[in-house]
Amino acid sequence: MLRLLRLLLLLLLLPPPGSPEPPGLAPLSPAAPPQAPDLLYADGLRAYAAGAWAPAVALLREALRSRAALGRARRDCGALCAAEPGAALPAVPLDAPGRDSGPGRAQGAWERLLLRAALRRAECLTQCGARRLGPGGAARLRVGSALRDAFRRREPYNYLQRAYYQLKKLDLAAAAAHTFFVANPTHLQMREDMAKYRRMSRVRPQSFRDLETPPHWAAYDEGLELLGRQEAGLALPRLEEALQEILAQMESCRAGCEGPEEQQSEEEEEGAGSQGGLYEIIAGKELGGSGCHREERHKLNGSRVLSAGHWIRVLQCRQRCVGDTATRPGRSFPVPDFLPSLLRQLHKAHAQVGNLSQAMENVLSVLLFYPEDETAKKVLNEYQTQLGEPRPGLGPREDIQRFILRSLGEKRHLYYAMEHLGASFKDPDPWTPAAVIPEALREKLREDQEKRPWDHEPPQPKPLTHWKDVLLLEGVTLTHDARQLNGSERVVLDGLLTPAECGVLLQLAKDATEAGARSGYRGRRSPHSPHERFEGLTVLKAAQLAHAGAVGSQGAKLLLEVSERVRTLTQAYFSPERPLHLSFTQLVCRSAIEGEQDQRMDLSHPVHADNCVLDPDTGECWREPPAYTYRDYSGLLYLNDDFHGGDLFFTEPNALTVTAQVRPRCGRLVAFSSGGENPHGVWAVTRGRRCALALWHTWAPEHREQEWAEAKELLKEPEEEEEEEEEEEEMPSRDPSPEPPSRRLQRVQDKTGKLPRVREEL
């Protein structure tokens, strides 16, 4: 009955038919207290499954609103209770105890103070939550880990985009789809949906906006872009906004570390069945003094242990907020040194507009992170020389000082817990001073940092002094440079493959096609043209087929070797000082369908850019999903020329004016930067079969092609494996680091024995 009443109430809140929808996903009832997000989400999914699109939209939006309101309440209550007298963390015990005290007594005193602070803070948070969220406070609205993960993955927006589409609200459907896709860039179905929305004339370009990404990313990206265009005056407000939003986002994240959901996750991990969070447990206890009974003293000791363990988890969570805030949606790793790098950009911008005092404040703030940074010291001396006389009171930014002092205090507690309580802690910051780390832990931590996160990866040779050296060693000739191709960062190289090698790879493509190894397009026709067939083969798929005996191992090994050869040349020519990593490799063949080439007017591959969405009308190229924004350089290595059509061509940003054209031939590599400066397409293949190796490279190591390492491992000969085992026996001190859990590669076959599907690439 309660759910039925909730559904009827939300139906009344919907706008009448024909009325304009408010922009975005605005709250339905801002003044109403938030309801349980899990119940709203479950009801929304039921309505969605029943095809009740309007109620589904209302319930899913209300679930999002409730979740956001809960986060705001936590943040505000956390800030209020942090200033509560008696709720501050006690100081870490000194390493050198006094004459009448030992390590055990000091540790016990610290735990008692910690319990007292936890009780005071728990009481404050409980009272504040009840005032903001109604009876029961945050405990009434908490959700399980599965549902938290669903919200973190933005799954409500996946359902919302479909429901909006059914309601003919295409702009809102596109916004919801874009919001989901930003956090799930590998979701193939949503990629197809996004492409469909972009082709719809009724969907406005401004509808493709992210409704969930924290505001600091928009300000940060815009500020860096303006600074890159030498518009420091316009960049400064956006960079300052980004800094304040980053600090605010960290506060919001830190507040979430103390709520009932955090406690619930701890209980789930430990198998506890308690219905209340830790705060509710310890805040409800009446802990007596010296006159308490033995059972009460036992409860006191249990609460003390529970409190210490809880606060360690809270501090671990708070420290993780630094990395969470610096991680873009849909990415696996944070931007390294996020705050210090932003401060460096700020001092440059202030200096460019003549604000030397503010520039010095930001340089001094950088030196708080890295006191021995020689570049920052040099810049600081230059600013002081330009200012002339000393400015009293000029120092680092107060907000950064507070951030560092608080962070270092928490790190001291965590390292103390590591040393004396057996806790674990992975420091997210490279700037932590060595003095904060206990001497007994420094050697172990240094060894852990020196370990590589995984062993098998494409080799990264040291860059040679000039790209000509690499071409000479590889026997490759430069055919056309960027000037001859009428563009920037373009090159044509010949001689990467011999005719025999081209033949081996062509046979590999043919054998793989006969084995049914198309790359998941679910059809024989190309996704870009109905007049051609399209087959694609990745390095891992080739290795799997070779391992199964469906294709020859020689071709699969050559495919792996050639992809690394192309990466080496591309890095040497375009990026000798910065390593490039293979991001995706695919052997692609396009075949003309006989009888369907008369009066043909389309292209084999329409004009596009590889890391941004090209808008020919404005000449802009938007570096955002559904484009593969992490791609930096592209390469096409051709295998044959016995076909009609199929030439690669470059255009102006209008996608109409052709600036250069390249005819494929065996062993010819066309390499170019992946951005909007190099729009390109492929003329129609009107007869025969055109095959090429398509490769994309990235500067971001987190986006390197993990399938490459898996394929290399799979193609190892038994003799090579035996040699490695012998080497390991001879070197017992070698300690290969395990592959990180987040980077585990899929197995060659699943439990049913079927080969897994290869991911699709548009």
UniProtKB/TrEMBL annotation:
Catalytic activity: L-prolyl-[collagen] + 2-oxoglutarate + O2 = trans-3-hydroxy-L-prolyl-[collagen] + succinate + CO2
Keywords: Dioxygenase, Endoplasmic reticulum, Glycoprotein, Iron, Metal-binding, Oxidoreductase, Repeat, Signal, TPR repeat, Vitamin C
Compositional bias (Basic and acidic residues): 747-762
Signal sequence range: 1-20
Metal-binding as UniProt keyword: yes
SMART domains documented for this protein: P4Hc
Keyword field contains Oxidoreductase: yes
Gene3D superfamilies associated with the record: q2cbj1_9rhob like domain (2.60.120.620), Tetratricopeptide repeat domain (1.25.40.10)
Biased composition (Acidic residues): 259-271, 718-730
EC numbers, comma separated: 1.14.11.7
PROSITE patterns noted in UniProt: FE2OG_OXY
UniProt record, GO biological process: collagen metabolic process
Swiss-Prot/TrEMBL cofactor(s): L-ascorbate; Fe cation
Record region (Disordered): 255-275, 711-762
Family indicated by similarity: Belongs to the leprecan family.
Name of the protein this chain belongs to: procollagen-proline 3-dioxygenase
Lineage: Eukaryota, Metazoa, Chordata, Craniata, Vertebrata
